[in-house]
């Protein structure tokens, strides 16, 4: 090795889900493409499953520079004091992923990512997971069945309001503590896309899942801004390309991963999967839609309106 050879630039990339989820796979794919495109000048070390940091700590760790990259769910960006990302938590905001992409892949998505810079965070991309279902130990077919249930949510005021529209009690807990909280009965239910339900073994602790598709769960790929800005321009260019490829990959596999996860949950035979009738769906939707008007002033009416315009 020549005397002036530099060690690779190390990027610690922390996340909270397992490696076999859409985000886990995309993070590993990014690591592989980053090594290839930079010809080994960058080594991305991925720490899955909250092994390095849990939800809240990981965002602080990024700001302090203890890790260089993360992909937290959009709900969790609110911990930076930027509530606009909670717009994505509004129930029944997007009819499908294509409509959602009009926001995340357009000017509005870029504008939202840009707002992170004041917090020392560089927003790089949006990665999909998918639409959420609810789980519990009782069948959830109508509004009364939600009454009084303690449901785990991510730390988001919008999700809190959404749960209250159902007559249930929100409980904001770290992702890593959810299984245990369900097992011990500290909480009664949860919401997540099926890939998270399956990989967190929800079928061991929840007897029922109702296919509501009521809200979107996706991620922002973010970096410590100082770290990112100080990278050699050539490396930054190559990493941007690796992120672009990983984004394309993440958004291509997410739906299929969630469909397969649902089949795997079914195959355990431990959790009943319920499809709502049109009338049941309409009842839950009507109740949860009240979240929009209630939370728009908190999120920022102009951001909510902009999303309506892009998706309407
Ligand atoms: C959750 O906390 O439920 C999710 O944000 C976990 C994740 O990162 O998918």
From TrEMBL:
Keyword Transport: yes
Keywords assigned: Signal, Transport
Gene3D superfamilies (alphabetical): Bacterial extracellular solute-binding protein, family 7 (3.40.190.170)
Family: Belongs to the bacterial solute-binding protein 7 family.
Matches recorded under PANTHER family: C4-DICARBOXYLATE-BINDING PROTEIN DCTB, PTHR33376
Protein name as catalogued: DctP family TRAP transporter solute-binding subunit
Species of provenance: Dentiradicibacter hellwigii
């Amino acid at each position: 090795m020549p005397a002036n050879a530099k060690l690779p630039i190390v990027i610690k990339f922390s996340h909270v889900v397992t490696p076999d989820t859409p985000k886990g796979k995309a993070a590993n794919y990014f690591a592989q493409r980053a090594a290839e495109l930079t010809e080994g000048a960058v080594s991305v070390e991925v720490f899955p499953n909250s092994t390095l940091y849990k939800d809240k700590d990981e965002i602080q760790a990024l700001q302090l520079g203890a890790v260089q990259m993360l992909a937290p769910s959009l709900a969790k960006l609110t911990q930076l004091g930027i509530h606009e990302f909670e717009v994505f938590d509004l129930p029944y905001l997007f009819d499908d992923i294509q409509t959602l992409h009009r926001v995340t892949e357009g000017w509005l998505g870029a504008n939202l990512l840009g707002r992170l810079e004041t917090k020392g965070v560089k927003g790089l991309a949006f990665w999909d997971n998918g639409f959420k279902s609810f789980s519990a130990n009782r069948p959830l077919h109508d509004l009364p069945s939600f009454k009084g249930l303690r449901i785990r949510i991510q730390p988001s005021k919008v999700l809190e309001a959404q749960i209250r529209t159902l007559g249930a009690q929100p409980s904001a807990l770290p992702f890593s503590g959810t299984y245990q909280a369900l097992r011990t009965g500290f909480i009664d239910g949860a919401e997540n896309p099926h890939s998270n339900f399956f990989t967190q073994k929800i079928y061991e602790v929840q007897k029922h899942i109702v296919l509501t598709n009521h809200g979107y769960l996706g991620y922002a790929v973010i970096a410590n801004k100082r770290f990112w800005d100080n990278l050699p321009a050539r490396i930054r260019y190559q990493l941007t390309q690796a992120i672009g490829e990983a984004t394309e990959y993440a958004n291509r596999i997410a739906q299929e991963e969630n469909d397969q996860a649902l089949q795997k949950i079914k195959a355990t035979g431990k959790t009943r999967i319920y499809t709502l009738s049109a009338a049941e769906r309409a009842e839950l939707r009507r109740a949860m839609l009240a979240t929009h008007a209630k939370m728009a002033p908190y999120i920022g009416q102009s951001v909510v309106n902009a999303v309506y315009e892009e998706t309407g």
